[in-house]
């Protein structure tokens, strides 16, 4: 075997194992937002100099693993593992009240792994069809960013408020960038990280103010009732195709295949739409709920993968909510990766490498997260609830962000991250200005301010 291929395989498997193990654990902790966790760690391994195949393997295994283990708190405790799991909560709660939360969990994570296997080849195939239009898309990238920002803003919770703040936020970002440039610093990483952790900063500022503190205070610790763990298969590795019924497998394959072509829509929105369609097609409460959960988690996974893979393979510029958020470092990680001009995984890997190392990442997630979720969901939940402080995890990531900002621009970088985090977080939390809108505005801000104000 070629020495270079062996070298790439070792790095690809190693990166996937690292991402799979870390985020199999992170998925158990509710409230660990993907943009605030996957993005900083992906950025860290890029800056540490990992090879492209290891970076891609790390990200893919991290995302697929987290989408399986985030089903554990969602199904067993009734709290969403992260924002991607929110649409699943209603159906999972009904099954929990019926006394079969373990069935909800098995259907969800089995749907997720089936969805991932389907999404990767479909997304890469569709990306190769779009690739001939790459030069045209790159030439119009700033305008595409503006149009995409308007579309995402209008479809976000903030709607007209998001559109209204778009230009002021662009001016605000360019003001900070030009101040940093005057001090001979680049702050693109610091701004990205500030936007990513904005909601956390907003919570901290909310707690510091006596006027708003009551919004977050709780009178007593939350109580959770965990269902018993029941096992209906032999061995350590269950077969997801035996966990799903043939009808559920068919619906899951269909939903994942179609949603793998939609790379500009929100994964949460696609998941909700798939849930409503499947709910209207299946009769019988138990069959309807379990089938709906299988398909919804598969669609979450497939849309997520499509939103990363299609823009990355076809264009090399972030043109989807996921590409602008958790996957942002795969496109822009100065001074190593850039989308203007394009110099990132798009130029460093071939479509066949995306396919090979994507499947390796999914296989690693299947070997790490899937059996772990199926065999030890209850024990792991008890361990996390008793021993792991969510505040400690948040502090750990905030510390990582401080380190990365200091690495880029010293104290100026930290100041920029904090400023963006507070301002962007308040826009997100109180006005519904989604982080996707903020990221898209960031990438379009240079062109926008130049065209509008000549500066």
TrEMBL record:
<feature type="transmembrane region" description="Helical">
    <location>
        <begin position="354"/>
        <end position="372"/>
    </location>
</feature>
<keyword id="KW-0812">Transmembrane</keyword>
<feature type="transmembrane region" description="Helical">
    <location>
        <begin position="189"/>
        <end position="209"/>
    </location>
</feature>
<feature type="transmembrane region" description="Helical">
    <location>
        <begin position="41"/>
        <end position="64"/>
    </location>
</feature>
<feature type="transmembrane region" description="Helical">
    <location>
        <begin position="304"/>
        <end position="324"/>
    </location>
</feature>
<feature type="domain" description="DUF112">
    <location>
        <begin position="16"/>
        <end position="430"/>
    </location>
</feature>
<feature type="transmembrane region" description="Helical">
    <location>
        <begin position="112"/>
        <end position="133"/>
    </location>
</feature>
<feature type="transmembrane region" description="Helical">
    <location>
        <begin position="393"/>
        <end position="424"/>
    </location>
</feature>
<keyword id="KW-0472">Membrane</keyword>
<feature type="transmembrane region" description="Helical">
    <location>
        <begin position="9"/>
        <end position="29"/>
    </location>
</feature>
<dbReference type="Pfam" id="PF01970">
    <property type="entry name" value="TctA"/>
</dbReference>
<feature type="transmembrane region" description="Helical">
    <location>
        <begin position="163"/>
        <end position="183"/>
    </location>
</feature>
<keyword id="KW-1133">Transmembrane helix</keyword>
<feature type="transmembrane region" description="Helical">
    <location>
        <begin position="139"/>
        <end position="156"/>
    </location>
</feature>
<feature type="transmembrane region" description="Helical">
    <location>
        <begin position="430"/>
        <end position="450"/>
    </location>
</feature>
<dbReference type="InterPro" id="IPR002823">
    <property type="entry name" value="DUF112_TM"/>
</dbReference>
<protein>
    <submittedName>
        <fullName>Tripartite tricarboxylate transporter permease</fullName>
    </submittedName>
</protein>
